[in-house]
């Protein structure tokens, strides 16, 4: 017998299971950090966490301070004080009051997404070429890259007061100015020193170091230790994609 989602949720509550944060109660002052997977969302969460909290964030507490709706329970997120900064990979949702949507070149996304899936055992013993074909067809979690991105970009044109879009590449080129632009949109007023401290604490070198220091006690403990979650942060598609793959992905997404 197939149980409909709402009944599943009720059953979980009755049995005291952890209800995923995607069922949280949306507040009018919530700020959502949204992206297609592997597009810079975790980096953005670290930037916010290292700015908003005096003791910063690490992979030990990132999910409780700047919660992930897939890893943090509804109860935990609902217990946070406002304004909350929350991570999501969901497609366009008109209910969200304030959204920072970050998106990245799909040629780099497909590479990063492949390694993420291997690290978290979403796929096993699958070649990159096989994963590439699935990505092109949208046969991966969260579907086709272009559908996800275009949905949010179209909405941002209609509701610029609610949705700010920024590319991963723009944020990487000048992280201070990019983050300052995001903070202005979120109506957060911080001085230059605090912002720069958050930027420095959220560098890829610092995040990579933090991953190694915390992996035994964080959510990385049960993942493949031979694959880093924080890899290089650099564009790799020119050296990783074959000519055939490059032609396919360029044609698919009109690059």
From TrEMBL:
<dbReference type="InterPro" id="IPR000863">
    <property type="entry name" value="Sulfotransferase_dom"/>
</dbReference>
<protein>
    <submittedName>
        <fullName>Sulfotransferase domain-containing protein</fullName>
    </submittedName>
</protein>
<dbReference type="Pfam" id="PF00685">
    <property type="entry name" value="Sulfotransfer_1"/>
</dbReference>
<dbReference type="InterPro" id="IPR027417">
    <property type="entry name" value="P-loop_NTPase"/>
</dbReference>
<keyword id="KW-0808">Transferase</keyword>
<comment type="similarity">
    <text>Belongs to the sulfotransferase 1 family.</text>
</comment>
<feature type="domain" description="Sulfotransferase">
    <location>
        <begin position="28"/>
        <end position="251"/>
    </location>
</feature>
